[in-house]
Amino acid sequence: MQEQLESEIAAILRKTAQTEIERFLDLPPMTDGDLIAALTTVVQSMPAAAQIDRPLYQLMCCRVVAVSLDHGNCTVSAKGYGNFALILSQLDRYQEAYRFGKLGVDLNERLDDMSMRSAVYFCFAALAAGWTQPIAESIELFRHGIRYGLQAGDHAHVGYNAIRCITHLQFSGNASARAGGAGADYEQLLHRVGARMNLDILRPRMQLVRCLRGETNDLRTLNEPKPSTKPHTAPRSSHAAARLLVADYLGVLSHASLPHGRACSGARDRGRARGDCFPS
């Protein structure tokens, strides 16, 4: 599979060498209904693939991009372009990743498709913008993603955007006040939309904010000031939450110290770990 994946990536990069990435926005619309249905099935399966088989997820993403470049754009092409940004980031091609992420957003808006908009904004903010642009841009993109997800009923991506927004607020330089207030609002929001998995990921972040404020009594567990029967070291999703939390801070602290938010190779590797923890 790895050889096939590398071949697919190389084929797409050959096309980007011949054609400006932004010009893919003007590709004709895809007209084959069966092909559109097939690509839609692939795109809807990508989040699950991202959790269980990373090379398979990347190959699926490449196929969506390749088919779109050959047969024209459709609504799910936008998400394919956004996810391809992650692959490019892992290859240290950060500027191209940003352009593919923006291509996904621009195509979604041109097609006036609300069903994918929250997901496309999440991809752009989480997988592309943060490596080349000031962190404030990603925070604003996540906020847009939350709003669009609520409008479209895409509660899963409401949760993904909310969690990432909190993470970025925490390392934006004004962590405690802004992240604490937004986190409380988002916690209520995720309760309201029933995003239980995302709540399990949000809570360790909020405990870190409380720890930084001196509101916890144990730096190792981030427990509440009063003894708790449910320490945050042992929620049901503890391993996933811990991986996500640690990878977030190590990765972004590394690239945040560089001019204009550019990532270094070490941050890139930790960025891979962050990608492993989030559906796309």
Architecture overview:
This protein is mainly α and 280 residues long. The protein has 2 domains: 1-113, no CATH class; 134-280, no CATH class. Helices cover 71% and strands 0% of the residues. The protein is built from 12 helices and no strands. It has helices at residues 2-18, 33-52, 54-71, 77-90, 94-110, 117-127, 135-152, 155-170, 175-193, 196-212, 238-256, 265-277. Helix 1 (2-18) packs parallel to helix 3, helix 6 (117-127) packs antiparallel against helix 7 (135-152) and helix 11 (238-256) packs antiparallel against helix 12. The protein is elongated and about 55 Å long. Residues 231-242 and 252-277 have low confidence and may be disordered.
Classify the secondary structure makeup into a structural class. Answer: mainly alpha
CA gyration radius, whole angstroms = 19 Å
How does the overall form come out from the CA principal axes?
A: elongated
| C-alpha termini separation | 21 Å
H/E element sequence = HHHHHHHHHHHH
Strand content: under 5%
Helix content: over 70%
- How many H/I helical runs? 12
Poorly predicted runs: 231-242, 252-277
Mean residue pLDDT: 81
How many DSSP E strands? 0
Domains (count): 2
Major β-sheet annotation: none
